[in-house]
Amino acid sequence: MIATDIQEKLLTRRAVKQYDPAFKLSQEEILDLLDAANKAPSAWNLQHWKFMVVHSDESKQKLLPIAFNQQQIVDASAVIVILGDKEANKNIDEICAPDIEKGRMTEEIKERLASQVNNVYQNEHYAYEAAVMNSTFPAMQIMNFATLRDLGTCAIGGFNRTQLIESFNIDERYVPTMLITVGKSIKTPRETDRRDIQTITEFH
């Protein structure tokens, strides 16, 4: 796929609300998509996210009322729950280990970085905001890479977070940022327009 084709696909992506319920993505295909999303950037490379894949019919039925009975929840091949990590500072040893092993970072630099990060994470408000903001980066990557694979997606913010956490036993370390349905579209999504870039851009 050449660059112009990629650009055209991404610029014409639209939210899919109607999916083919007979279309199934395998766990391997979903993991491949998530692996691409996992390459997203993050502050200090802390990778403030976790993915919970609602894949089985039973789990999708369980999620349905939590997401206010949106039909796409059960018709999509999978629903990816994006979880923001409020304790991403705890990832630093695991994340820095390959850099130290490959000589890209010294233990001294890692300890200095860890001290800086842990100091910032004493602020719970920052930890929450960082979890939400940084977890949106892989979320967009999921939608973009799915588009390049001719899959439809829809980001969903309308769901009961408290019920989701309780029903799926989500650790309090994580905040559910959004749901993303993924599957095969059975209807051309409705086109939408965007505001003129000149009206929403300022140069200083």
Automatic annotation (TrEMBL):
<protein>
    <submittedName>
        <fullName>Nitroreductase family protein</fullName>
    </submittedName>
</protein>
<dbReference type="GO" id="GO:0016491">
    <property type="term" value="F:oxidoreductase activity"/>
</dbReference>
<comment type="similarity">
    <text>Belongs to the nitroreductase family.</text>
</comment>
<keyword id="KW-0560">Oxidoreductase</keyword>
<dbReference type="Pfam" id="PF00881">
    <property type="entry name" value="Nitroreductase"/>
</dbReference>
<dbReference type="InterPro" id="IPR000415">
    <property type="entry name" value="Nitroreductase-like"/>
</dbReference>
<dbReference type="InterPro" id="IPR029479">
    <property type="entry name" value="Nitroreductase"/>
</dbReference>
